[in-house]
């Protein structure tokens, strides 16, 4: 037991007992022993934290030119609007309008905080009461549990809408009847279904929601006075599904349409949107996230309660200058999407050759793959052991399925944007050797190097 626990509150005790995620210890081990072509060729590949390093050099140069060529404005040193200073919100609104929503996003509908994490926490705190429940289609981002739970006291309900990855081929099979069932179950447990949280493109599956599906879900939520929030944190991290090597994976392709467009049409107090610069711009360390909502009461509450979560004015100033350069941002997004697609294709090429099931992705920084054929036991423990074995034998650290809330065991998330293309090739080669060896240990599915 760590020292001093007996002197803190029950909440503090609970927090001390619960690490934010189970893979952090191995992550720091993998980072210390990171692969390097020249100096550490047998090193590890930490592929479990959702970071995007693909075009950092390009953005870094732009940020450095802003800080080098401009004098810091006076307002930067003072307190500002807790929901984000006006000039920053205007720059972010113009960026979203131009590149993601393709329709005007008013600056007054935005409230900003230190990363999507704090935006999720703040929004849950303001929309739901302690003991309420948020429904989240499974599998989904494990850290939602802490973001909605630790301070807001909201419970997570993982809505099972499929079991096998191939069931996602025409989009998420989420039906109103499942939401009705979830509502009944939640109410029977003495709680209230107060939020529906969707992520599009999704973490971990890379799936997206069709516009018509979003509309149906939004109408149902409004009718039942349930808040629907779509997290578009991966909104610009999109895969080019026309790429010749992957095109056949999308026989009936869906189109990405931002939920913010529907919000603008409906102007409902129950519809909301989350975004952050952590993923699309690969600057998770800058801590910039935002809520977009036409619920003016919610924005006001956010402003009044948001002081502990403010983004530093210096960060707001630097990024408003960067975002204002539309020519640069267009080039950056184009380069980032190309690099991401190239990473994705490297991974998929190997998975196809190895006949490993995965969900064809429309966007995000992930591949969600099914390694269940290698489970010694179909259980959390079997999954955990396989995760450790992959790390031990290949140096590849994936995110295990635990915490994603999904019914099927043996699914893993691979982050594809944290390595260079050269590193990714090496990692996939190691994974290939591991798979071949495992299959050869099992007489049923032999495969050798020549077949691949
Ligand atoms: C779906 C989702 N929401 C929120 C976050 C947290 O983002 P931020 O770094 O902006 O707090 C992540 C990070 O992985 C995520 O995947």
What's the SSE pattern?
HHEHHEHEHEHEHEHEEHHHEHEEEH
| CATH homologous superfamily classification of the largest domain | Type I PLP-dependent aspartate aminotransferase-like (Major domain)
Strand content: 5-15%
First-to-last CA distance: 50 Å
Rg over alpha carbons = 22 Å
What strand line-up does the widest sheet have?
2-8-7-6-5-3-4
CATH topology (level 3) name of the largest domain: Aspartate Aminotransferase, domain 2
Tell me roughly what share of residues is in helical segments.
Answer: 40-55%
- How would you characterize the largest beta sheet? 7 strands, mixed
Number of domains: 2
Overall mean pLDDT score?
Answer: 95
Class computed from helices, strands and strand pairing: alpha/beta
Secondary-structure arrangement, i.e. CATH architecture of the largest domain? 3-Layer(aba) Sandwich
Number of strands: 12
Task: Give the count of helical stretches.
Answer: 14
| Low-confidence regions | none
Principal-axis shape equals globular
What does it look like?
The chain has 452 residues and is an alpha/beta fold. It folds into 2 domains: 5-57 and 330-451, Aspartate Aminotransferase, domain 1; 73-324, 3-Layer(aba) Sandwich (Aspartate Aminotransferase, domain 2). 41% of the residues lie in helices and 12% in strands. The protein has helices at residues 10-17, 24-32, 56-69, 86-101, 115-127, 144-149, 176-188, 211-223, 259-266, 296-305, 313-324, 326-353, 380-394, 421-441; strands at residues 45-46, 110-113, 133-138, 155-160, 193-199, 227-231, 271-276, 289-293, 366-370, 396-397, 399-400, 411-415. Strands 2-8-7-6-5-3-4 form a 7-stranded mixed β-sheet, sandwiched between helices. Helix 5 (115-127) crosses helix 10 and helix 12 (326-353) runs parallel beside helix 14. The longest helix is centred in the last third of the chain and has 28 residues, at 326-353. It starts with 9 loop residues before the first helix and ends in an 11-residue tail after the last helix. The relative contact order is 0.16. The mean pLDDT is 95. Pyridoxal-5'-phosphate is lined by residues 50, 115-117, 141, 199, 203, 231, 233, 276, 278, 284, 289.
């Amino acid at each position: 037991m760590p020292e001093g626990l007996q002197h803190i509150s029950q909440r503090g005790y609970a927090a001390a007992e619960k690490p934010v995620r189970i893979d952090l210890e191995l992550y720091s081990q993998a980072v210390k022993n990171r692969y390097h072509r020249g100096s550490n060729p047998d090193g590890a590949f930490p592929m479990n934290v959702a970071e995007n390093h693909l075009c950092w050099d390009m953005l870094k140069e732009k940020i450095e030119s802003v800080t080098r060529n401009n004098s810091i404005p006076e307002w930067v040193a003072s307190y500002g609007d807790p929901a984000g200073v006006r000039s920053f919100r205007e720059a972010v609104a113009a960026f979203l309008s131009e590149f993601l929503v393709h329709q005007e996003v008013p600056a007054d509908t935005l409230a900003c905080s230190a990363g999507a994490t704090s935006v999720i926490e703040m929004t849950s705190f303001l929309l739901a009461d302690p003991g309420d429940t948020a429904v989240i289609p499974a599998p989904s981002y494990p850290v939602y549990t802490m973001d909605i739970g630790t301070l807001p006291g909201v419970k997570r309900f993982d809505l099972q809408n499929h079991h096998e990855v191939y069931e996602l081929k025409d989009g998420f099979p989420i039906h109103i009847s499942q939401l009705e069932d979830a509502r009944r179950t939640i109410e029977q447990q003495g709680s209230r279904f107060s939020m529906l949280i969707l992520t599009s493109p999704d973490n971990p599956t890379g799936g997206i929601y069709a516009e018509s599906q979003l509309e149906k879900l939004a109408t149902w939520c409004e009718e039942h006075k349930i808040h629907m929030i779509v997290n578009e944190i991966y909104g610009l991290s999109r895969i080019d599904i026309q790429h010749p090597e992957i095109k056949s994976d999308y026989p009936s392709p869906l189109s990405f349409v931002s939920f913010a467009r529907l919000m603008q049409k409906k102007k409902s107090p129950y519809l909301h949107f989350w975004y952050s610069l952590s993923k699309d711009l690969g600057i998770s360390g800058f801590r910039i996230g935002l809520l977009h909502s036409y619920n003016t009461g919610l924005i006001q509450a956010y402003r009044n309660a948001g002081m502990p979560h403010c983004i530093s004015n210096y960060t707001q100033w630097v990024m408003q200058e960067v975002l204002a350069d539309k020519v640069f941002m267009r080039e950056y997004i184009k380069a980032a999407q190309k690099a991401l697609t190239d990473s994705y294709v490297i991974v998929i090429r190997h998975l196809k050759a190895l006949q490993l099931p995965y969900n064809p992705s429309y966007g995000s920084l992930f591949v969600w793959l099914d390694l269940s054929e290698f489970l010694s036991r179909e259980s959390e423990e079997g999954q955990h052991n396989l995760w450790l074995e992959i790390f031990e034998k290949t140096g590849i650290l994936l995110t295990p399925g635990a915490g994603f809330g999904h019914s099927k065991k043996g699914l893993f998330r691979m982050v594809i944007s944290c390595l260079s293309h050269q590193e990714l090739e090496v990692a996939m080669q190691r994974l290939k050797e591991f798979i071949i060896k495992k299959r050869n240990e099992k007489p049923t599915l032999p495969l050798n190097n020549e077949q691949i």
